[in-house]
Each structure stands twice: as structure tokens, then as C-alpha cells.
């Protein structure tokens, strides 16, 4: 009997640990060696990989005419890539799809395993890029970029997906492409904004703060935002917007791209964090923000709770459906009028597995998605983000009254673009920004402490 | 269990106290080297479960220990680092805080469900033995079969600021108490604890009630004839005779608390701040988000050691009482 009980204990303990680690992948000794830094030799190898049919006349990589099944992994919650795949098959009937859907949070854990598997996806939504490229799991896309002319597309589109020889993002070898390019800013409820006397978007942070104060005085919820650790802390959006309003975007990007010596704990970022702390203390955010999930915040804003919300244009469709014709968008204003606008603008990043069977077809799909009129229309209708592509590409038509008109119009006003501070390392959001901002909401952290704690966590993770 | 072959060399063996020499002799005479059919059949029955156990428990367990000595991201070649992961693990943010949280969860996941389970099982056993008792058992056991992810979403709604629990409080004139229970630093851990009670109470009740049905009813009858009330019966008969079942309940629920992951992940993901973070959450983030398999494995091994250290006294007490 005693043995049985002892076994019960061991089974419980072992089971707990084994569940967590049973998906840990191949044994250390079975794994392939790490790839080298992207050198010319590597690029040359890629040429032979990507152009299997050498003919006298240069031929663009494509999907051929034989029936092929494209293996793809898309992100749950967004139907647009599936619609693109469907349209692609209509236009190229020899291509069919084997699509797997994964939650974004799951993608972080499963992507390396999928990429390293014997039957990797030809096309996969990438939650992060650097470490996968470092491990040799992603296809070098430089030859495709040259063949399809991606290098001539507007620079910010492509450069976020480049890695240099030290694995710093921003320049070098291309390892991924964006299916579209999202932008963040401030959405507002037109009816409620009119109620507090907003006739045009604010031109400075001070004007914006004045609107928040008016909303509060009118008994309205000034800002709707989410903050549950289950979704990740939404206050990182206004914080980063404030950082770009009070300081240059380059140091922020350098920090995100892990440039040696970069720090988030700068004097201008401290001013930004102090403003955010002030907004929290003045009650501009919901009292229960630490328990609000992303979808709840979007839902509550759609139901009229909140005059403003900081979010990205991927939510356009959702806001339009909840409040048709009643949602507006403007970019975060600068601290000083006329100083230029900056925003987080990130590609919806997709990559091709290094050993993908149909890499040529996947690369062709990237070009098609950015240049084909029907594909661009599906892209804008589905998510509301800029579909990218050549600078002179025709912008799809947008339904009258849609907030997408505002977000697309805001793009050209940008003078500075940043990636998201939550993407600096794989867990800086979960281990740094989210808990520290939640503490700030709970009165247990101040602006200076926030930046110091996040920087320490950043250095700890980089050293790991 | 397989009988242990004893090399009796054809001689009969006699017990030391000579109480039942004949019986002992017949029991201990073993036909050497002959594989009995029952043994083979027994092993065949065990084999599928044993295989599963080896593949899904033993192998990952040994792999975890092995990984803990390497620097490995799950894909690139692993580098031997010796005990470095065990030293560096203390740099994980607020590690001690997560362990303290896990011990707080023992109160909510173990002490309350076992204590409350004893009371509820005793009441069901005494007053609701018929259909009502079955219905009560089923209702209380239901949380065990509801997928935890669904339970997490439902509890998230119930405990939210606009949720049902706060609406009830407002209706009762207790509006001052309303809050986002899972988002408040002071109430998040107890709120997660309540979810844990909800999940584990049914398990404890069913196990304890099964134990109670094994107790000779004559004991209760004679106690009642002697004028014992519910509490006297409970304290003098039920608890002493249920020590084994209580030991099992405590073991399972303490493991659930110290190695907690799922309940936390689906309700708060460790927030707000790190007020509900536990070692299980840190292992997940290290292993699957940071892809630091070595430190995650080291923390998992340390957590296992902690769980075993806590479980040993419970087992020891259980064994003592069984004697």
C-alpha cells in the first residue's frame, strides 16, 4: 500500500514535468549544426537551392505547372491569409494548400519545431525572426529579392526583416517578408469625441492630454486599453507612442534590434514613462485594466466604452463592424507641434523554411500578394493594413465610412517608424513590460523603476 | 506483483516465530525457472501501460535531467555547461516570490478542498445517501471533467469587473467590495485559489465519500445510540478511519499546488505583476518562450525536488497511520 502511494506521488511529479517537456523536440545530439553567418558563400548556396531549373534565359522562380500542395502555417484569428491562399489557387489551379492554424502564443513555441521538422512549412507566420535565422531554419531570401525586385520597394518595408552578419536587424540578408504592414495610433469614438469638443485630431501631446481630461470630467472613460498578462500589457502601446513623441525613434529601434550597448532607460523615455504614469494616476485607463484582455478591450470600445484607444490597424475590421462609420483614427501627435509623426509599424512577417519543398512558389506568393490587384484588395478588406509592394502600386478601394480610410491616409504622414518594444526579445513582453506596467497600474512601480527593471531583464535575456 | 522466487533448495522454510509453519512452507515452495502462465498474462496486461509510462514519463523525466546540464535552444547543438544552469536559475525574476506563491496555493488547492471535502462528504454520507447524494456528487465532481481552458474563460468572466460576482455584490449593497478580482494585486492569488478549490473539491469529495462507505456502519450506529452528534461522529470515527484517503487527497492536491501551471495560465498567466506567478509558469516561459531549455529543465528538476521534499512527510504520516 505504501508503495502504491509512493508511486502515486512520483507519477504526479513526473507527469507534471514530462508534460512540460515531452514536446521539447529532438535530442541534442540529433540536431543539425548551426548555420554560419550570412556570407557570400551561403548566398551562393542559396542560388543553387532556389533555381533548380537552370536555363539559358533567366526565369523567375514560380509554382510551375505540376500539381503542388503548399504547406502553410497561419495565425488563428485572422482569415485574410486563408482568403489569399484561396484566391491564389483560383489564379494558379495547380497549387493547393495544406494550412494549419496556430494561436500567436503557440507559434512562439512551435515555430522552431515546425521549421526543424522533416516536412517543414513552405510558408509560416513568424512570431520572431532572429533566433530562427541564427539557427539556420529560415530560407535566405536575397536571391528572391533580387529576382522579383523587392529591393526596389520602399525601404522600411523590407529592412525590418533583414539581419546583418552580427544578427542585428535592419540591414543585411533578407530572411522574411511582410504580407502587409500594420500601423498603430489612436482610434476614437466619433460621437464621444464630438461630445467632449474634439473637432480635429490633436496636434500635440498636450492637446491630447487636454482631451483626456475633458473626457474624464464628462464622466466618460477617456482611454480603453487592455492589460491582462494573458494578452500582454496594452499600455506598451501608449508608452511607445509617448517615447517617439518625446525622443527620436532610432535609439528605440536600436534597442529592439539588439544593437550592442542599446538601452531603453534614456532621459526622453523617462519623460514618456512619467506621462504614462500620470495618465494612470489620473484614472484615464479603466480601473480593471490589469484584468482586461485584448478581445475584451476591443469589444468594450466597440460598445462605446472609451473615447480613445491605442491600437493597430489590424483591428479596423472589428471596429468598423462594431461601430460602422463612428470610428476615427489619428497618429500619436508629437510633443511639439509640427515635429513630425512616428508610429509602430511592423510587417505581418512570414518566412519560408530553409528546407521547404516549394520555396520558389512561396516566394512567388509574396510577390503576388503585394502586386496582384485582387490580392491587395483582399489584404486591405481583411485586415485594413497597407499591403506594401512597389511604391507606385495602386491602393485598393476602401468602403466609405471605414476607419481604414483614416489609417491608410495616415501612412504617408509618418516621418519615423518603429518596431514594437515588445518584440525586442522573445520574452521581454512576458517578463519585462507586462509585469512592470501592471505594477505601475497597481501603484507598485514608478516611471524610473519601470525602465530600469525592463533594461535589466533585457540584458539578462540577451546574456542567456 | 510478481512473487519473489526464493532459493529454498527443496527444503521447507519455517517462519521465525513458528506460528504457521505449514502454511508458510506451502507458500514459499517455488518451482524454480518455470515461467507461470499467470505471470506472462499479468505482464501482458501491464505492458501497454508500462510502455506509455516509459515513453511519456520516464524518458522525458530523464531527458529533463540531461537537458538541465546543457545550454540548448531546442534546435542548435547543445553545449555542456555543467551546473551553471542551476546557479544561474536564481537570476530568474522573483524566483523566490514564485515559490512563496506556490506555497500559498497549497492553502487554497489542498487545505481548503481536503477540509471542506471532509465536511461535505460527511454531510452527504449522513443525510443524502439516496438520489440527492448522487446528484450532489455529480455536480461537485463536474469541474473535473470540464476542460480547464473553458473553465478559465468562464471564471475570467465571472470575476471580471462587469462580471456576475460583482453584480451580485452590488445587488446585495456591497458595491464597495467590487473589483477586478483577477487583476487586483491583493485578490488575484486568492481568486485563483477559489478556482483551484472549485476544480479540486469534487475530486476530494468523491475519494473521501468512497472511503466513508467502507467504514462499518455499525460504528456510526453505536455512536448514535451513545448519543453522538454529527461532529462527534466526524471527529471520532470519520477522520481517524479515513487517514489513508486523506493522505491521497493531500498528496494529489499539494502536487497540484506546488507544480501548478494550467490553472494559473488560463486565469492570470502569472499577473498582475508577478503576484500569481509560480515556478511552473516560469518553467514554461523559460523553455518555450525564451527557448532556454537548459535553465527551464534545471528549474523543473529543482521544482520536482521541492515537491518530493514536501510530499515525503505527508507520505510518512500516511504510512504511520496505516500501520
Strand content of chain A: 5-15%
Helix content of chain B: 55-70%
| Apparent shape of chain A | globular
Oligomer category: heterodimer
Number of strands of chain B: 2
State the major sheet of chain A: 8 strands, mixed
CATH architecture of the largest domain in chain A: 3-Layer(aba) Sandwich
Identify the CATH architecture of chain B. Answer: Orthogonal Bundle
Poorly predicted runs of chain A are 1-57
- Would you state the CATH class of the largest domain in chain A? Alpha Beta
Structural class of chain A: alpha/beta
- Give helix and strand order of chain A, one letter per element, not per position: HHEHEHEHHHEEEHHHHHHEHEEHHHEHH
Care to describe what's here?
The complex is a heterodimer of chains A (464) and B (323). Chain A has 464 residues and is of the alpha/beta class. Chain A has two domains: 65-181 and 347-383, D-Maltodextrin-Binding Protein, domain 2; 182-345 and 411-463, D-Maltodextrin-Binding Protein, domain 2 (3-Layer(aba) Sandwich). In chain A, 44% of the residues lie in helices and 13% in strands. Chain A has 19 helices and ten strands. Chain A has helices at residues 2-21, 40-50, 80-91, 104-116, 130-134, 142-148, 155-159, 190-195, 205-217, 236-246, 250-256, 267-281, 294-302, 316-322, 359-371, 373-383, 403-410, 428-441, 447-463; strands spanning 68-75, 95-102, 123-125, 162-163, 173-174, 177-189, 308-312, 327-330, 341-351, 414-418. In chain A, strands 1, 2, 3, 6, 7, 8, 9 and 10 form an eight-stranded mixed beta sheet that branches. In chain A, strands 4-5 form a two-stranded antiparallel ribbon. In chain A, helix 3 runs antiparallel to helix 16. The longest helix of chain A is centred in the N-terminal third of the chain and has 20 residues, at 2-21. Mean pLDDT of chain A is 86; it is low at 1-57. Chain B has one domain: Orthogonal Bundle (MetI-like fold). Chain B has 14 helices and two strands; from the N terminus they run ααββαααααααααααα. Chain B is globular, with a radius of gyration of 26 Å. In chain B, helix 2 (37-67) packs across helix 14 (293-322) and helix 11 (243-258) packs antiparallel against helix 14 (293-322). In chain B, a hairpin with a 7-residue loop joins strand 1 (70-71) and strand 2 (79-80). Chain B has a two-stranded antiparallel ribbon with strand order 1-2. Chain B has helices spanning 21-28, 37-67, 84-88, 95-127, 131-145, 148-159, 164-171, 188-214, 217-225, 230-241, 243-258, 262-267, 279-289, 293-322, and strands spanning 70-71, 79-80. With 323 residues, chain B is mainly α. At the A-B interface, helix 1, helix 4, helix 18 and helix 19 of A face helix 2, helix 11, helix 13 and helix 14 of B.
Amino acid at each position: 500500500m505504501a508503495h502504491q502511494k509512493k508511486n502515486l506521488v512520483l507519477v504526479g511529479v513526473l507527469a507534471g514535468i514530462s508534460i512540460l517537456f515531452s514536446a521539447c523536440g529532438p535530442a541534442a545530439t540529433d540536431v543539425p549544426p548551426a548555420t554560419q553567418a550570412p556570407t557570400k558563400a551561403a548566398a551562393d548556396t542559396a542560388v543553387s537551392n532556389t533555381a533548380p531549373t537552370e536555363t539559358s534565359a533567366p526565369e523567375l522562380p514560380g509554382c510551375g505547372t505540376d500539381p503542388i500542395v503548399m504547406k502553410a502555417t497561419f495565425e488563428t484569428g485572422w482569415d485574410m491569409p486563408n482568403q489569399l491562399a484561396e484566391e491564389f489557387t483560383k489564379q494558379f489551379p495547380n497549387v493547393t494548400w495544406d494550412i494549419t492554424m496556430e494561436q500567436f502564443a503557440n507559434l512562439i513555441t512551435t515555430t522552431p519545431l515546425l521549421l526543424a521538422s522533416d516536412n517543414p512549412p513552405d510558408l509560416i507566420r513568424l512570431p520572431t525572426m532572429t533566433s530562427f535565422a541564427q539557427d539556420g531554419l529560415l530560407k535566405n531570401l536575397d536571391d528572391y529579392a533580387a529576382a522579383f525586385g523587392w529591393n526596389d520597394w520602399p525601404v522600411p518595408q523590407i529592412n525590418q526583416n533583414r539581419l546583418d552578419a552580427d544578427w542585428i536587424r535592419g540591414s543585411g540578408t533578407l530572411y522574411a517578408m511582410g504580407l502587409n504592414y500594420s500601423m498603430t495610433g489612436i482610434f476614437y469614438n466619433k460621437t464621444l469625441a464630438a461630445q467632449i469638443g474634439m473637432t480635429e485630431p490633436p496636434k500635440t501631446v498636450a492637446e491630447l492630454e487636454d482631451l483626456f481630461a475633458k473626457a474624464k470630467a464628462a464622466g466618460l472613460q477617456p482611454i480603453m486599453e487592455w492589460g491582462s498578462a494573458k494578452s500582454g500589457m496594452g499600455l506598451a502601446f501608449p508608452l511607445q507612442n509617448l517615447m517617439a513623441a518625446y525622443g527620436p525613434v532610432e535609439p528605440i529601434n536600436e534597442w529592439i534590434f539588439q544593437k550592442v550597448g542599446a538601452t531603453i532607460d534614456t532621459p526622453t523615455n523617462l519623460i514618456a514613462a512619467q506621462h504614462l504614469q500620470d495618465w494612470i494616476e489620473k484614472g484615464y485607463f479603466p480601473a480593471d485594466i490589469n484584468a482586461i484582455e485584448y478581445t475584451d478591450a476591443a469589444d468594450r470600445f466597440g460598445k462605446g466604452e472609451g473615447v480613445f484607444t491605442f491600437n493597430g490597424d489590424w483591428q479596423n475590421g472589428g471596429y468598423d463592424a462594431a461601430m460602422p462609420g463612428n470610428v476615427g483614427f489619428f497618429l500619436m501627435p508629437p510633443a511639439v507641434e509640427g515635429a513630425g509623426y512616428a508610429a509602430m509599424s511592423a510587417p505581418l512577417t512570414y518566412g519560408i523554411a530553409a528546407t521547404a519543398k516549394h520555396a520558389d512558389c512561396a516566394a512567388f506568393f509574396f510577390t503576388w500578394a503585394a502586386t496582384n490587384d485582387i490580392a491587395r484588395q483582399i489584404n486591405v478588406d481583411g485586415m485594413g493594413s497597407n499591403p506594401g509592394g512597389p511604391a507606385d502600386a495602386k491602393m485598393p478601394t476602401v468602403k466609405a465610412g471605414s476607419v481604414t480610410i483614416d489609417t491608410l491616409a495616415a501612412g504617408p504622414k509618418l516621418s519615423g517608424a518603429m518596431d514594437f518594444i515588445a518584440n525586442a526579445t522573445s520574452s521581454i513582453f512576458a517578463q519585462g513590460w507586462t509585469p512592470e506596467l501592471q505594477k505601475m497600474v497597481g501603484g507598485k512601480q514608478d516611471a524610473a523603476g519601470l525602465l530600469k527593471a525592463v533594461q535589466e531583464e533585457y540584458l539578462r535575456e540577451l546574456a542567456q | 506483483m510478481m512473487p519473489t522466487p526464493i532459493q529454498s533448495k527443496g527444503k521447507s522454510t519455517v517462519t521465525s516465530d513458528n506460528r504457521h509453519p505449514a502454511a508458510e512452507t506451502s507458500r514459499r515452495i517455488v518451482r524454480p525457472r518455470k515461467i507461470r502462465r499467470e505471470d506472462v498474462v499479468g505482464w501482458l496486461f501491464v505492458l501497454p501501460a508500462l510502455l506509455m509510462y516509459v515513453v511519456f514519463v520516464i524518458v522525458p523525466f530523464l531527458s529533463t535531467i540531461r537537458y538541465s546540464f546543457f545550454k540548448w535552444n531546442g534546435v542548435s547543438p547543445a553545449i555542456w555547461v555543467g551546473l551553471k544552469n542551476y546557479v544561474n536559475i536564481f537570476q530568474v525574476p522573483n524566483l523566490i516570490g514564485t515559490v512563496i506563491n506556490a506555497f500559498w496555493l497549497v492553502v487554497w488547492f489542498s487545505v481548503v478542498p481536503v477540509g471542506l471535502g471532509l465536511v461535505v462528504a460527511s454531510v452527504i454520507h449522513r443525510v443524502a445517501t439516496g438520489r440527492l447524494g448522487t446528484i450532489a456528487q455529480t455536480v461537485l465532481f463536474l469541474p473535473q471533467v470540464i476542460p480547464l481552458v473553458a473553465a478559465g474563460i468562464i471564471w475570467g468572466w465571472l470575476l471580471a469587473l462587469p462580471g456576475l460576482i460583482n453584480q451580485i455584490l452590488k445587488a446585495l449593497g456591497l458595491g464597495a467590495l467590487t473589483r477586478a478580482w483577477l487583476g487586483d494585486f491583493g485578490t488575484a492569488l486568492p481568486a485563483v485559489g477559489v478556482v483551484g478549490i472549485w476544480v479540486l473539491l469534487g475530486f476530494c469529495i468523491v475519494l473521501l465519500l468512497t472511503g466513508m462507505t467502507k467504514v462499518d456502519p455499525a460504528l456510526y450506529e453505536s455512536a448514535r445510540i451513545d448519543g453522538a452528534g454529527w461532529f462527534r461522529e466526524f471527529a471520532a470515527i470519520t477522520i481517524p478511519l479515513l487517514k489513508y484517503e486523506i493522505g491521497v487527497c493531500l498528496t494529489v492536491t499539494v502536487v497540484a499546488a506546488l507544480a501548478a501551471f494550467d490553472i494559473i495560465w488560463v486565469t492570470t498567466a502569472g499577473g498582475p505583476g508577478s503576484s500569481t506567478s509560480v515556478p511552473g509558469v516560469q518553467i514554461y516561459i523559460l523553455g518555450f518562450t525564451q527557448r532556454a531549455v537548459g535553465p527551464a529543465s534545471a528549474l523543473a528538476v529543482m521544482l520536482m525536488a521541492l515537491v518530493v521534499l514536501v510530499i515525503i512527510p505527508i507520505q510518512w504520516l500516511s504510512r504511520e497511520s496505516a500501520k
